[in-house]
């Protein structure tokens, strides 16, 4: 009992209450996330149009579907936990069961916190992307984080669950659905990013005549620079290869920098009379 690791911030008798509070807090965080996404959707429709509106709607819709999947996962996880407690506590109270299985309980609390935090971070990242102040990569990372925290919650719940439990089967199905929805967020984010970047690069509709002429000249300069680099790179590549062979021992490089083939290995043995050298 003394060797068992104890939580530093949660007393044993408080673990049961902490589980219920944390699951309730996670559910509230998800409900709040759904509301915020709906608000962002309304704002995006009012403030954007065309391609940007299409991209924002697609990303926010995928985030909404992910939140719905997480909400169902948390509800199923809560039902499974109640089933585990009822079947395993015997004559003990719920609090005593959680205290007796403190390591499992702490893992459950940690997993629940991770799911709620991931949902909150996803919504904040989506908000920044819609407002064009954030990075698309943030959404992708948050989606991966949610998938990982979901796996953690399922693993924590599965430890003490009966293998034939219907709630366990439902929880695993919910987990697969969350992973699928998270993958959809990643896919919609990547396609949206490509679509926006392509539009920003090729959209000249808002430019004046002078701005268009300036942009045309700058593009011509870039084309000429690239052509010059293409002309200079092949000879450079050849010289780099020569230097590589020289360092590898294939060439003998004299002090004057001229690269000549390396001498034959047995030159010292097979000596010939000196001959007149050609210029």
Short structural summary:
The chain is mainly alpha-helical and 279 residues long. The chain is built from 7 helices and 2 strands.
Q: What tags apply to this protein structure?
A:
two-stranded antiparallel ribbon, single chain, 2 strands, 7 helices, I/LWEQ domain, mainly alpha, 279 residues
Structure, explained:
It is found in: Cytoplasm. The protein is mostly helical and 279 residues long. The chain has a domain at 6-196: Up-down Bundle (I/LWEQ domain). It has helices spanning 15-47, 50-88, 94-100, 102-130, 136-158, 166-202, 209-247; strands at 251-252, 260-261. Strands 1-2 form a two-stranded antiparallel sheet. Helix 5 packs antiparallel against helix 6. It is elongated and about 85 Å long. The N and C termini lie far apart (94 Å). The relative contact order is 0.10.
Q: What is the fold-level CATH name, i.e. the topology of the domain at 6-196?
A: I/LWEQ domain
CATH architecture term of the domain at 6-196: Up-down Bundle
Provide a count of the helices: 7
> Structural class of the helices, strands and pairings?
mainly alpha
Radius of gyration: 33 Å
How far apart the termini lie comes to 94 Å
Percent helix, as a range, is: over 70%
Protein name: HIP1R protein
GO molecular function: actin filament binding; clathrin adaptor activity; clathrin light chain binding; phosphatidylinositol-3,4-bisphosphate binding; phosphatidylinositol-3,5-bisphosphate binding
Region (Disordered): 246-279
GO biological process, one term: endocytosis
Give the SSE map.
Elements: H1 15-47, H2 50-88, H3 94-100, H4 102-130, H5 136-158, H6 166-202, H7 209-247, E1 251-252, E2 260-261
Antiparallel strand pairs: 1-2
GO cellular component, one term: clathrin-coated vesicle
Region (Disordered): 246-279
Keywords: Cytoplasm
């Amino acid at each position: 009992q003394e060797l068992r690791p104890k939580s530093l911030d949660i007393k044993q008798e408080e673990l049961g209450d902490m589980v219920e509070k944390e699951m309730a807090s996670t559910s509230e965080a998800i409900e709040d996330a759904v509301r915020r996404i709906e608000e962002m959707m309304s704002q995006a429709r009012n403030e954007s149009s065309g391609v940007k509106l299409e991209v924002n709607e697609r990303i926010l819709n995928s985030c909404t579907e992910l939140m719905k999947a997480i909400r169902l996962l948390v509800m199923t996880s809560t039902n499974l936990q109640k089933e585990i407690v009822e079947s395993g506590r015997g004559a003990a109270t719920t609090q005593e069961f959680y205290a007796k299985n403190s390591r499992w309980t702490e893992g459950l609390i940690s997993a629940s916190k991770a799911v709620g935090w991931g949902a909150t971070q996803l919504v904040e990242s989506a908000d920044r992307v819609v407002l064009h102040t954030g990075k698309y990569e943030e959404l992708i990372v948050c989606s991966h984080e949610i998938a990982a925290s979901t796996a953690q919650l399922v693993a924590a719940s599965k430890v003490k669950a009966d293998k034939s439990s219907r709630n366990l089967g439902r929880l695993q199905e919910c987990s697969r659905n969350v992973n699928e929805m998270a993958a959809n967020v990643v896919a919609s984010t990547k396609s949206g990013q490509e679509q926006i970047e392509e539009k920003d690069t090729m959209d000249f509709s808002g430019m004046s005549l002078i701005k268009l002429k300036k942009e045309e000249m700058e593009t011509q300069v870039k084309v000429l620079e690239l052509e010059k680099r293409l002309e200079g790179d092949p000879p450079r590549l050849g010289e780099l290869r020569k230097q590589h062979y020289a360092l590898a021992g294939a060439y003998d490089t004299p002090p004057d920098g001229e690269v000549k083939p390396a001498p034959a290995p047995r030159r010292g043995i097979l000596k010939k009379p000196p001959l007149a050298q050609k210029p």
